[in-house]
């Protein structure tokens, strides 16, 4: 355990900065993923390693009305996506705040996640992310 400036005990659960440095040291690190939009149209997208899937949708200019309304602050469920069960199992467990927002999501499935919480990794090459029809 560490203490901060104020003498309070702190604990590091997950150091995102190290994770991002590990995967984003080369700005040319991209993989291909597929996004199925609400109209069931498949869109091929380039995903930068270390970014989150909400940013992938935005960076690829995929127009999904209302998607990511809270800009990734875990204050809504508009970036709700569905993954296949094999890929879903390989992701880290969602934090409580994500589960709280998923409870409000339309079309919730056992393999639902919020795109803003999915960090792109090289192993996600060719994964499919389905945006449920609202």
The CATH superfamily name is Beta-grasp domain
Q: What's the domain count?
A: 1
Widest sheet, order of strands: 4-3-7
Largest sheet composition? 3 strands, mixed
Molecular shape: globular
Domain 2Fe-2S ferredoxin-type: 41-120
Pfam families: Fer2
GO molecular function: 2 iron, 2 sulfur cluster binding; electron transfer activity; metal ion binding
Cofactor: [2Fe-2S] cluster
Would you give an account of this structure?
With 134 residues, the protein is α+β, with helices and mostly antiparallel strands. It has a single domain, classed as Beta-grasp domain (Ubiquitin-like (UB roll), Roll). The protein is built from 4 helices and 7 strands, in the order ββαββαβααββ. The chain has a 3-stranded mixed β-sheet with strand order 4-3-7, with helices on one face. A two-stranded antiparallel sheet has the order 1-2. The termini are far apart.
Based on the model shown, name its key terms:
metal-binding; 2 iron, 2 sulfur cluster binding; two-stranded antiparallel sheet; 4 helices; Ubiquitin-like (UB roll); 20% strand; three-stranded mixed sheet; alpha+beta; iron
Question: Can you lay out the helices and strands and say which pair or pack?
Answer:
Elements: E1 2-3, E2 9-10, H1 16-24, E3 30-36, E4 42-48, H2 53-59, E5 80-82, H3 85-90, H4 96-102, E6 112-114, E7 128-130
Parallel strand pairs: 3-7
Antiparallel strand pairs: 1-2, 3-4, 5-6
Summarize the structure.
With 134 residues, the chain is α+β, with helices and mostly antiparallel strands.
